[in-house]
Amino acid sequence: MIADVNLMFEENKIYGLLGRNGAGKSSLLNIMTNRIFASAGEVKIDSESVADNDSKLGLMYLMSEVDLYPNGSKLSQIVSDSELMYGGFDHQLADKLIEEFGIDMTQKFGKLSTGYNSIFKLILALCLPVKFVILDEPVLGLDANHREIFYSELLASYSENPRTFILATHLIEEIATIISDVIILDQGRIILNQPVEDVLARTHSVVGPKNDVESYTKGLNVVGHDNIGNIRANYVYGDLDDRRLPDTVQLSNFDLQKLFVFLTNQYEGGKHHEN
Amino acid sequence: MIADVNLMFEENKIYGLLGRNGAGKSSLLNIMTNRIFASAGEVKIDSESVADNDSKLGLMYLMSEVDLYPNGSKLSQIVSDSELMYGGFDHQLADKLIEEFGIDMTQKFGKLSTGYNSIFKLILALCLPVKFVILDEPVLGLDANHREIFYSELLASYSENPRTFILATHLIEEIATIISDVIILDQGRIILNQPVEDVLARTHSVVGPKNDVESYTKGLNVVGHDNIGNIRANYVYGDLDDRRLPDTVQLSNFDLQKLFVFLTNQYEGGKHHEN
């Protein structure tokens, strides 16, 4: 269930849309692209409603786990059909990607493995002339080499032809250096929507003897902790005020995946605030 | 196709089995557990052949993408059936995992999402009394929080009850700190089989001005490189000999995923050795 979601995607940004299983990511993306209907609210591009507006819908491509292509069609045929439907296709980029990924375009869609099914849809997503490229679990089934090719080709294609990307994935650390903005969806609500840089600057891991760490972080927004013997790490998300740091205590930042786990961990949420 | 594979899994080790899509990982695991037959060669446990030997087959559990359970069965029923078949089940651990993962055991197997399908099979794998726990893509569809729970429960279960684990996964960096040994399968052949510690100690990234880096690494096993402006990074796998390091050049290690990509990258392989 999606509730009270109010989102605005700006031009030429690369968004990471993060959420736990069942948080509502796929529903949100399907509503945005008119594949399912919202019971309330609407989706607009340039202040025009998207619903039943083909010229606006044609500005978006959603690559998702749900397959919309006939199993019996050859990949090259699906490319031709999509080119007609969207009014264009970057064949030069496609040829490069086909060679890098080693995909055989004479194959039938229904015969693809999980990894190559993802790869084929990524090629469509990068080569169709859309303003919004929306990728739901883009690297499902891809091995490490193919994931590297995808991330680097996404950045190259973006810098050649800036447009808006929305990446929904569970592999948070792999996209942390690619995205400009991070959106966290939790139980159908947006709990974070900010530039990655700002988000990471607000993460603080405070490490040292337990008493010193606890007294230093008192009143701060402690979202998680670890204990290693007598050493305590408290993880703070937010400002540190101007309080004086004891010599025994060390400050650093922590990563986006760790922050995500802390902010969306319902079972652990209570525990982290104890003690 | 698997060819010339000669592997010995030792007791109480945690192996990472790595390979690209199509390298033969799943075939190998299916042969080991007698699900498909090898055209040549055999699988032994304690020097006894596994083929058609139920007492030996009962020592292994393979969790794979292929579902062996009836879609209409309740999860709790599959647990009871498996307990009978394998002669035991750790209900105490299972109850803990069921709560941590938040899985409803009254559901039917066929109704599970990709993530919960993986989670259910992981619970079976950790709680059945087998000597060899074999996990093919164990975290497929799991969000970051569930992956953390799985890795930490795997280590806890291993230290409580040491046995042999074999993890086949594309998420190499996530298991790099968990596994004791790494096996890399490439095009049906084993190209690496060593303790992780030894492997990482043989990785060297050599960074500095291009000429200095090239002359320092001449004759060494350079498996990859990067250029950033005038700065060159050559990635060496193997010994550095006793050659003198110029002051301008910096040495460090690189990670397992990077090594994997270099060693298994057929397209790039040639290029890395050029200049």
TrEMBL record, chains A, B:
<protein>
    <submittedName>
        <fullName>ABC transporter, ATP-binding protein</fullName>
    </submittedName>
</protein>
<keyword id="KW-0547">Nucleotide-binding</keyword>
<dbReference type="GO" id="GO:0016887">
    <property type="term" value="F:ATP hydrolysis activity"/>
</dbReference>
<dbReference type="InterPro" id="IPR003439">
    <property type="entry name" value="ABC_transporter-like_ATP-bd"/>
</dbReference>
<feature type="domain" description="ABC transporter">
    <location>
        <begin position="1"/>
        <end position="212"/>
    </location>
</feature>
<dbReference type="GO" id="GO:0005524">
    <property type="term" value="F:ATP binding"/>
</dbReference>
<dbReference type="InterPro" id="IPR027417">
    <property type="entry name" value="P-loop_NTPase"/>
</dbReference>
<keyword id="KW-0067">ATP-binding</keyword>
<dbReference type="InterPro" id="IPR003593">
    <property type="entry name" value="AAA+_ATPase"/>
</dbReference>
<dbReference type="Pfam" id="PF00005">
    <property type="entry name" value="ABC_tran"/>
</dbReference>
